[in-house]
Amino acid sequence: MSSSQNKKLIIYGTLSAVIAASLLISYFLVLPFLASPNSAYNQQITESWVSYPTLSALKNASDVIIVGKVTAIASNNTGATPPTTDFSIYVNETIKGNVSSGSTVLVRQVGEILPSNRTIEDQDDPMMIVGSNLVLFLEYPRQTLNGPIMIGAPLFITGGPQGRFLLRSGLVYSLDSISSADSWIHVKVNGMPIEQFVSQTQSA
C-alpha cells in the first residue's frame, strides 16, 4: 500500500472518529429533553399535600378564600430547600377571612421561575402566571401543626393545586381541567360561572 493511501486511510479514520464522537455527545445532550417533554424548560420537584375530598373540607381547611389577580412576582426565595416564590395577589373579592377587597396579599408557592421562563416546579402544581385571574383557597403558615397562625407571613395555597382555581371569562376551572397530572384532584370544576362557584363555596 502506498504512503498516499495510508494518509487517506488515516484521514478517513480520524474524520469517522470525530463524527462518531460528535454524534455521541449530541445524543447525550439531547436525550434528557427527548425523555421528558417538560425537561427542556423545567426542573421537576415533588411535593405532597393533604387530600381534600369535598369543597366543604377545602373551605374549612382554609383561613382565607379570595378572588384575585396575580400582579407580580414579589420575590424568589432561592436559598430555601425547596425554593419558593412569593406572588403579589390583588384581592377583587373576599369569600372568607379577614382580608379586604382592594388590598394585596402575598402568596408563597413552592418552586421558582428561572431566566428564560424556565421553572423549578412540581408538575402537579405549575407555577402561577402573572396576569392570571384565580380563586384561591389560602392558609397562614403555622410554627407547629396546630399552633397559632403567623399573621403577616405570606399565605400558602391550601392543598397545593387543589386550592387554586382558574378564572377565565367569568368561568371557574380546577387545575385538573387543563392538566392530566392533576386528575387526582377531588374538587373538580369545569367552566362554572364565578357567581355560582362563590355561592357554593359560601354555603359549603
Describe what this molecule looks like in 3D.
The chain is α+β, with helices and mostly antiparallel strands and 204 residues long. The protein folds into two domains: 1-35; 44-203, OB fold (Dihydrolipoamide Acetyltransferase, E2P). It is built from three helices and eleven strands; from the N terminus they run H-E-H-E-E-E-E-E-E-E-E-E-E-H. The chain has a five-stranded mixed β-barrel with strand order 2-3-4-8-7. The chain has a three-stranded mixed sheet with strand order 1-6-5, with no helix packed on it. Strand 9 and strand 10 (171-174) form a beta hairpin. 26% of the residues are buried. Mean pLDDT is 80; it is low at 6-12 and 17-41.
Describe this structure in a few short sentences.
The protein has helices at about 5-35, 55-60, 195-204; strands spanning about 40-45, 65-75, 85-95, 105-110, 110-115, 120, 135-140, 155, 165-170, 170-175, 190-195.
Residue share in helices? 10-25%
CATH class of the largest domain: Mainly Beta
Order of helices and strands: HEHEEEEEEEEEEH
Instruction: List the quaternary state of the chains.
Output: single chain
Low-confidence segments, given as residue ranges, are 6-12, 17-41
- Helix and strand composition category: alpha+beta
CATH topology category name of the largest domain: OB fold (Dihydrolipoamide Acetyltransferase, E2P)
Rg, alpha carbons: 25 Å
Number of domains: 2
Number of strands: 11
The CATH architecture assignment of the largest domain turns out to be: Beta Barrel
Determine the mean pLDDT.
80
